[in-house]
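User: Good morning. I'm curious how adenosine-5'-diphosphate would be positioned relative to this chain. Could you predict the structure with it bound?
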Amino acid sequence: MVIQLSNIRFSYPNHKDTPILNIPSWSMAEGEHCFIHGPSGNGKSTLLNMLSGILLPNEGVVCVLDQHLNNLTSRQRNKFRADNIGYVFQQFNLIPYLDALENIQLASYFSSSLTKSEVSEEMSTLLTSLNIPESDWNKPVRTLSIGQQQRIAIARALINTPKLLIADEPTSALDNINRDSFMTLLMSTVEKNNITLLFVSHDMSLSQYFNRVESLSELNQVECSNAS
Ligand code: ADP
Ligand code: ADP
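Assistant: Good morning! Here's the predicted structure, ligand included:
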């Protein structure tokens, strides 16, 4: 299993009386593309942060790629995340004044899995396959279109050849045309590289791209006091 959760309970430290997650059991197998939907405030980002070891549960076991994250120190979890998990965010989180190559290079710096020349080669392959013309590789990313920035964010997420890709509302800044081309490109990229994909969004229209669709409210047994 790529992801296995058992008897997870989570609340934020300063809000102990507001449980956010209560997940008895949930898992994802290798190669699955899973879409989890739920309204804003439902706990989607919290769940993803737990899967990537940014947050630890108050109770229960988080197992990712056969590693119990609970047993790792925070430093080990950061290393584990850099080596195994790619992340695509809503706001891309690119550094605006750096160019495409520099943004991607920065992500590779935190993982030891590739040498410098392998990184260069992999960057060229990724940017080319994501249809970013070479003439744009050295421009500050803030000068590129939103659609292009989001494709650079995919390249960055994939540079360390992650086994698991986590996407948190990556299309919400995109218009319909950019959204559809982003999704098509994302799905073919994960397919081609045999990457397991967990994608969360409130936008149900995206479910058409996935072979597994779930509602967070169904897998999360917490009282829905937060969801609006
Ligand atoms: P979603 O991603 O579905 O919008 P989140 O996981 O971001 O939901 O948030 C779930 C709930 O947890 C919300 O009520 C949010 O206000 C609360 N929350 C998120 N982050 C924190 C935090 N750092 N401290 C306290 N509460 C938080
Ligand atoms: P998203 O839409 O991706 O869930 P949010 O806008 O809910 O993001 O939250 C943005 C950031 O603010 C997150 O890092 C989240 O942890 C934090 N946050 C959200 N709600 C709270 C809260 N009630 N208290 C403290 N931090 C919060």
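The first helix runs from residue 44 to 51. The chain has one domain: 3-226.
Let me know if you'd like a different ligand tried.
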